[in-house]
Amino acid sequence: MSMSLLELNNVTAGYGQTPVLFNVDMTINKGDMVCLLGRNGVGKTTLLRSIIGLNKISQGSLVFQDKNITKFPTYKRSRYGIAYIPQGREIIPYLSVLDNLKLGFSASGKSSKRIPSEIFEFFPMLKEHLPRQGGLLSGGQQQQLAIARGLMCNPKIMLLDEPTEGIQPSIVQEIEDTLKRINREKGITVIVVEQKIDFARQLAQKFFIMDKGSIVAQGQTSELTDSLVHRYLTV
Ligand SMILES: Nc1ncnc2c1ncn2[C@@H]1O[C@H](COP(=O)(O)OP(=O)(O)O)[C@@H](O)[C@H]1O
Ligand SMILES: [Mg+2]
User: Where in this chain does the record put each ABC transporter domain (predicted)?
Assistant: First the structure.
């Protein structure tokens, strides 16, 4: 068994005939906590969507746990252990918090219908709000619900797209702490797309920077220098 959990090899992907990602190479090891950085429009969301199968990979390959999954449909990738928490969270507003959580079961293909108690250990707030409509939660609570829903299918890797966007600072801190716990205690590998450099530095050990559809820098977050930040991340 190799150390690497997920590998993108020379991946080109996009929308219809229009490529957005060009020759992306990326290796994510088991247990990594990684942030994916880059200015608006460089392809971060498209990269996550290509990993979960919402954008077609037209060239190159995607390898997960030593298996080539380039052509697998999204539901199969979910069952193999890839969880995707999209930007904007996509909570169903008129469904209860409980029913929103249960949607996580459908991704796993499991028949169990009991919410595992660990979900409430990671997100105690959810327990108090189970009968409420999802749409009535605050933005930060909805983000926590979305992460919890992703956790329901027992993923090996979680892909999060800008989980702190538009969320009040106290909950940003909670989300940071919870993601660290999920990574440490459950050994789940995490890739987070993030705009806030400080958050990324505190959360992740490794970083990738994208520009114009390609990876242009990577390393330990301790090596994320101001010159890289100025060159690729500040507007
Ligand atoms: N649904 C779509 N159809 C066509 N092009 C898209 C679509 N969504 C995004 N794009 C284009 O893909 C590029 C990368 O977008 P995206 O992956 O959303 O970047 P980021 O997440 O880094 O802001 C942009 O040029 C954007 O205009
Ligand atoms: Mg995006």
Answer: 6-235
- Classify residue 142 as left (phi > 0), alpha (psi -120 to 50) or beta: alpha
User: Ligand 2 centre and the CA of 111: distance in Å?
Assistant: 33
Q: Report pLDDT digits (tens) over 182-230.
A: 999 999 999 999 988 989 999 999 999 999 999 999 999 999 999 999 9
CB 15 near ligand 1, within 6 Å: yes
- Interval between CA 216 and ligand 2 midpoint (Å): 17
Considering only residues 17 and 58, tell me which one the structure prediction assigns the higher pLDDT.
58
Q: Which amino acid is residue 157, in one-letter code?
A: I
The CA distance from 210 to 185, in Å, is: 29
d(Cα 60, Cα 23) in Å, to the nearest integer? Answer: 8
Does any ligand 1 atom lie closer than 6 A to the CB of residue 42?
yes
Q: pLDDT tens digits for 16-30?
A: 889 999 999 999 999
Q: Which two tokens stand for residue 202?
A: 């505190």
**Mean pLDDT value across residues 75-101:** 93
* Coil, helix or strand at residue 90: coil
Q: Which ligand is nearest to the CA of 87?
A: 2
Taking CA atoms only, the protein residue closest to ligand 1 atom 3 is: 15
- For residue 213 and ligand 1, the question of a CB distance below 6 A is answered with no
Q: What's the mean pLDDT in 33-54?
A: 97
Domains in the chain, CATH or no CATH each = 4-233 (3.40.50.300)
